[in-house]
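This follows on from our talk about sequence and fold. Please put the record directly below this note.
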Amino acid sequence: MLTAFTNGTIYTGAQVITGKTLLAEQGKIRALVNPAEVPTGATVVDCNGHIVAPGLLDLQIYGGGGYLFSAHPSPEALNAMAQALVKSGTTGFLLTLATDTMEVFHECIRIVRNNPHPAVLGMHLEGPYINPAKKGAHTLELIKRPERAELESLLAAAGGMVKMITVAPEMCDPAILRWLDEQGIILSAGHSNATFKEAMEGFQNGVRAVTHLFNAMSSLLHRDTGLPGATFRDSSVYASIIADNIHVDDNALIISKKVMGNRLFLITDAVEANNTGASQHVAQEDHFTRPDGTLSGSRLTLMRAVQRCVQYAGIPLDEALRMATVYPATLMGIKDRGRIEPGCRADLVIFDHQYKVQKVYIAGAQQ
């Protein structure tokens, strides 16, 4: 079926286009054409002057739709989470697991592998290979150093489903980091107390990204700039950031964006209320905490993070959208998402100028 999206401002990821009609066919973007060139018989979607953008991509999210997935690993929880995210404009995500037992990891991986969903890009394991000194909301007793045999077993069970692992590079044998990189795993430094030197060594050994910049990591000090300073210094390294003015002050967001440019991308780090297992979260007004009060997750949607970047950090909308589409897709090596280009999957979010999502499409099908 050929669908024509008309009367919208199209943010392609490379430019902002008005006065054109977006054609999608067989689940993919076909072309941008003049309205008079729309083929007869096409299904016309009037975008009512709203914004048409690539579906958003969240590389770190633990739950949604009322479920923290690691506490309720089931097809029902996975579908509820995916539906809630898609409704909010996120058409692709890495289902994320915080530090837990290997049994929980294996069960979660099994459920995700056996129940494919078009919005699931894969899985992100945040831990357990992190630094106890920067554990944040992670369970201390489950933190450990990585061992090759355990990782081989885990990745074999995952069958390619695990795409990203957050590690503290200073706690890992460089040979294991290099091996994980060779397996195609995106290594991200986080929950780390690395010095500047240790962080740079981690980058040289395969670490390509940094998890939730500034949170649960060594500080940027004038005598040792730590992991944040190394992130700023190495122009090949990406970093995620939680733009809610709780995890990170808006001024830190502004400064980071000025320094990092297209290496900084948005995540939600969103969780759901849960009172069982290793990851327990208590809902507060605009965030989540552990029962002891430790900050443990956000209540963001990625669309609200984009909105905050524009309204509070002064980032132009097209660039804020790239932080939630193009840049995470580039880090992941995904060629057919995060952009509106011929041949890309027709994952689209249509939202108004108050950032309220109106319609969402995955592979050209309205959700």
